[in-house]
Amino acid sequence: MATTGLSADPKEYRERLAEQSDDQLDAWAAELMRDVAIRRGVRKVVADFRAAAGLDEPGFERVFAAGGGPPAVVGRDAAGALMVPAITLFSLVPGIRSAMPDARDRLIEYLVANFNELVYV
Fold first, then answer.
1. How would you class 95 by CB atoms within 10 Å of its CB: exposed for 0-12, middle for 13-18, buried for 19 or more?
2. What is the Cα–Cα distance from 37 to 44, expressed in whole angstroms?
3. For 8, 9, 60, 79, which has the most beta carbons within 10 A of its beta carbon?
4. What is the pLDDT of residues 60-108, one digit of tens each?
């Protein structure tokens, strides 16, 4: 399991993530976004990513656009929650990489915050 980054608990998972390459972390974060969006919805991904990355709404929009997400598609659902199309979620990974000097730490935080989602999948 050590080579995959998987572990039995969030603390060990965080330690194993720290050993991974940036490319691997980016791939896992994008895959997690896709999987959670399919299973639980885009709204959950947006909320979890914002919380883990410490982004307010303008910060989220800036990261999204920096990663190639079209700003015109950022909107709100019927309940007023920030939304983007599911197909554009991957933009958050290169976006945070280009917009935040501590992007690696924020992506690790997102992965660890969703540890229970990973265990489920």
1. buried
2. 7
3. 60
4. 999 999 999 999 999 999 999 999 999 999 999 999 999 999 999 999 9
